Amino acid sequence: MRTIALVMTLLFACGVEAASIYGGQSTAQAVCSQCHGIKMPSAGAPFPPLAGRDAEYLQSALKQYRDKTRKSDIMNNIAGSLSDQDIANVATYYSRLKP
Amino acid sequence: MKTTKKLLSHSVIAGLTAALLPLAAESASDEKANIHKLYENNCASCHGSDHGGYLAPALNSETLKGRSPTAMRTIIMAGSFDTLMPPFYGRLSDDEIRGLVNHLQNTPKLDNPAWTIEDIKASLKVYVKDESKLPEKPTYEIGSMDDVIGVAARGKYGRGDGSKAVFINSVTHKQIGEIPTGTAAHIIDYNPANPRWAYVKTDTAEIFKVDLYSMQAVRSVKTGYNGPGMGVSRDGKYIMAGSFVPHNAVILDADTLEPLKTFELEGIDPDGKMVTSDSGMVIGTPFDDIFAIALENAGQVWVVDLKKDQDFPVTKITDVGHHLHDAFLTHGGQKLMIASYDDSIVAAIDLKERKIIKKLEAGCVPHVGGGAAVEVDGRTLGFGTNFGDCEKTVVSVWDLDKMEVVKQVPVDGGTESPAAHANAPYVAVDIISKDRRARTIQLIDKKSLEVVKTLDVGGHAYFPEYSADGKFLYVSAGYSGDEVVVYDSNSLQKVASIGMESPAGIFSHGRVKYITRGLSPDEMKGAAK
């Protein structure tokens, strides 16, 4: 019974409302890290680092890219594939990483 | 060190200037030369200076026939996921990318470009003139130089500030130094006779002589256009380097890096055809004053004698296999186990008799990496990994005394390099299949010869290596990953992470004490002196 309660709590915690670090890690590795790296982008890369950035800022920037209120050929396309949940997850993941 | 950086940044500036020259103002031939320069400065370190492929696919009019230019532009801009191909968006302009695509689709594979002994001589750079003024002992805290572990950091773009050899104290897991290499570092070898010297070879075939005590490069030389092959002789006096482009090899004085003799790599392949050949592995052995070098396409192993007063004579062992690649030593360094990609065998060669002992079944496209051998219950077992991502993916285990297959251990995917240590319970292999499996390392129990644990390392996890004392397992989380992860060899708990760009091969200084990773240093006693 206690186990079930625990599982329910966990499920709730990872539900639609809350951001999942693990989901964020998976999106970061599959989508973002190719250019931005995980902890740091390449020393020679023209892409900004994401690790340790403010989660609110990352979320709003990604939503602006997705809605094309902020223009970037590459980012408009990439953010276009992300759901609200993906954006919340990935912003939380990067914001909690130490660069 | 400052000198190195300065020289490197000079060449980068020269490259950039060339790339930025307004193309429209140039004549057609200048334009072609400029585009080729753009290729050299961005693509060639992986795809080959001759457009014939190297770590990455061949890019020429034949291989790219019928490919959509739009799709190619997309790959160049965004990179290719699960490979080393980085995104060039923001680094190259749209015009440059279009120009490159057009150039690649209209350029045939080039003839072997010349890189002669004179070119090698002229490329020698001296960063520290007077080596007698170097410190007499390490300028950092370290118990034994064997505790130094080196990582070849490729850098995301295979060149630039992220490309370096990084040295770590494998007891504290703290970085103790780094050597910028300009282009991707690939192989790190240590001098068996003097613990202060290391040699780092890049994908553009440059060799840096590194003083580990002061952590700086003292000299460098460019031995070709592309190719990682490098070995150091047991007396620490010679280096042999082999290239993919052009098809040659060179013996260098390990002290001055001056070239002593070059070798044209060509011969009759197992099908009776005369071919010129890429260099595969180059290896020195504690068994004798010799180098062994694999001629990949000619299917031959050459044994080069280093006896004084001789002009480095060569004994050729022919018909070893179709497309040879890498190898490891056993039996005091007398026997060489060499992988043959296209026959899916590993050939055992006796370096004393200079002949083939036996060809052993080896799974699918064997790539033995640095190789691994362990002693279990009185038997010496060799472990062979396989590049191929075939229906049946296995790690081969051979009895190295009887020279027979003991077991083919099923693993999750293709593998590239095994790591073992006399004091560690597991043989680690890296799964490289191009999906989430690439994040993992699998551990094979030495005794049961079964996979007992899978580690989710992250990035593209490859090139496992044990610390010299066997207490820690180092793994590169490479490609888009950017750290080396350290595990406790017994508990397999993660104990440290060291950040760097696209880490690849890991090389423990302890290697100079073993014939092959996994064997006890006592094995060395068997080596002839």
At the fourth level of CATH, the homologous superfamily of chain A is Cytochrome c-like domain
Query: Looking at the structure, what is the overall shape of chain A?
Result: globular
User: Roughly how many Å is the radius of gyration of chain B?
Assistant: 22 Å
What is the 3D form of chain B?
globular
Characterize the structure shown.
The complex is a heterodimer of chains A (about 100) and B (about 525). By secondary structure, chain A is mainly α. Chain A has one domain (about 1-95): Cytochrome c-like domain (Cytochrome Bc1 Complex, Chain D, domain 2, Orthogonal Bundle). Chain A contains five helices and no strands. Chain A has helices spanning about 1-15, 20-35, 55-65, 75-80, 85-95. In chain A, α2 crosses α5, α3 packs across α4 and α3 runs antiparallel to α5 (about 85-95). Mean pLDDT of chain A is about 85; it is low at about 5-15. Chain B is mostly beta strands. Among the domains of chain B are: about 1-105, Orthogonal Bundle (Cytochrome Bc1 Complex, Chain D, domain 2); about 265-360; about 365-529, YVTN repeat-like/Quinoprotein amine dehydrogenase (Methylamine Dehydrogenase, Chain H, 7 Propeller). Chain B is about 15% helix and about 40% strand. In chain B, α4 packs across α5. The longest helix of chain B is centred in the first third of the chain and has 19 residues, at about 1-20. Chain B is globular.
What is the structure about, briefly put?
The complex is a heterodimer of chains A (99) and B (529). With 99 residues, chain A is mostly helical.
Which key features would you list for this structure?
heterodimer, A: about 100 residues, mainly alpha, Cytochrome Bc1 Complex, Chain D, domain 2, about 60% helix, about 0% strand, B: about 525 residues, mainly beta, Methylamine Dehydrogenase, Chain H, five-stranded antiparallel β-sheet, four-stranded antiparallel β-sheet, 6 helices, disordered N terminus
